[in-house]
Amino acid sequence: MGNPSVSQGNVTYRTVDWEDRKRSTIELARELGPKMAALPGVNAFPITPPSLGGASATGR
Q: What is the tens place of the pLDDT at every residue in 1-24?
């Protein structure tokens, strides 16, 4: 928690517009979660915050 140090970090990615992709952000997070968990010595997980437009739990 707090500010990242040498052993901590944050990554943010932006998706393309909904019209230009086939998967929701939730679907992307479900795919990335196991890949992140498989990184040796890393405790990483995707988080999908709600959009500014008040999106539903499906990420749309």
A: 566 666 777 888 888 888 999 998
- 8 A C-beta contact, residue 25 and residue 48: yes
Cα–Cα distance measured from residue 13 to residue 31, given in angstroms and rounded to the nearest whole number: 14
C-alpha neighbours within 13 Å on the C-beta side of residue 54: 0
Predicted TM-score (pTM) above 0.85: no
Is there a contact between 28 and 35 (Cβ–Cβ < 8 Å)?
Answer: no
Q: What is the dihedral of CA 27, 29, 34, 38, to 10 degrees?
A: 150
